[in-house]
Amino acid sequence: MALRELKVCLLGDPGVGKSSIVWRFVEDSFDPNINPTVGASFMTKTVQYQNELHKFLIWDTAGQERFRALAPMYYRGSAAAIIVYDITKEETFSTLKNWVKELRQHSPPNIVVASAGNKCDLIDVREVMERDTKDYADSIHAVFVETSAKNAINKNELAIEISRRIPSTD
Ligand code: GDP
Predict the structure, then answer these.
(1) ipTM beyond 0.90?
(2) CATH number for the 2-165 domain, one of 3.40.50.360, 3.40.50.300, 1.10.260.40, 3.40.50.150?
(3) pTM
C-alpha cells in the first residue's frame, strides 16, 4: 500500500486548543493541564485512507508568532493548514480570517485550508455560530469541522476531510 507523507500545520490564537486537538487525534486522550506549546511541537500519525496510507506530519505552532517571521516555516510545503479557533471567543474567529488572508498570499496555492471550531462542548457560552463559520468556510472552499478535544467530538474528521481533498496519486 502506498504511503504518503502529508505535512500539516496548526495555526490559531494561543489557548484555542491546538495542542489538545493534536493530542486527541494522535493519542486519543485529553490533558486539562496540557503545557503551553513553546516554539513548535511535532507529532506524526499514520491512518489508512482508501487504498493509501497517509502519514500526517503535524506541526503545532505556539500561536504567538502569528503573522511574524516564523509562521511561513510551518505552512511552507504543507499539504494542509488547520486554523483553529475557540467557539466561545469571537476574537479567535477574527484571527482565523486573518490567517486565511495570510495563507492566500504566501502559502502553496493548492494548500488545503481547514477551519476547526474547537471547544464545541461549551455550547452554553458559544459566541461563534456554526452556521456563520460554515457559510464562511464554503465561500473560501475550506474544510469546516467543529471539534471538542475534551469530549472527543470529531476527533478524526479533520484528517478524513483533508485526505478527501488531497488529490489521489492513482
Ligand atoms: P493551544 O494553546 O491552542 O495549543 O491550546 P491548548 O491545547 O493548550 O488548550 C488551551 C486550554 O483549553 C487548556 O486549558 C485545555 O484544557 C482547554 N481545551 C482544549 N480543548 C478543549 C475542548 O475541546 N473543550 C474544552 N472545554 N476545553 C478545551
Answers:
(1) yes
(2) 3.40.50.300
(3) 0.94
